[in-house]
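Input chain follows. Return structure tokens only.
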Amino acid sequence: MRFHTRKWVKPEDLNPNGTLFGGRLLQWIDEELGIYAIIQLEIPRTVTKFMSEIDFVSSAKQGDIIEIGMEVLAFGNSSITLKCEVRNKLTRKTIIEIDKIVMVSLDENGKPKKHGKTEVEYVKNRLNK
């Protein structure tokens, strides 16, 4: 699993219990997976189609730093299927795991669009040529 993004938990991210609001975390996950899928599929109209069961196994509090990791499971004709794990960088505990997220590429009419991709493309660091 590659961890692509870190977020700092701030006061505006907390629920009434003083821990990270689940809706905020899901917003961050959806945004990061969307960006990743758009970059991989090279189609800007790529949206979330499906997320499997969501089970919060631990929490984060103000000041914690979380990491969002993702892994490609499969490519479909118009989709990419991912797995996601979010962990607390400071406590090293997993906060949430989502076993299956399907992102679908759309054409200008909102219909599934074939992308032609079959494997993950890694962006090379252009400074290390």
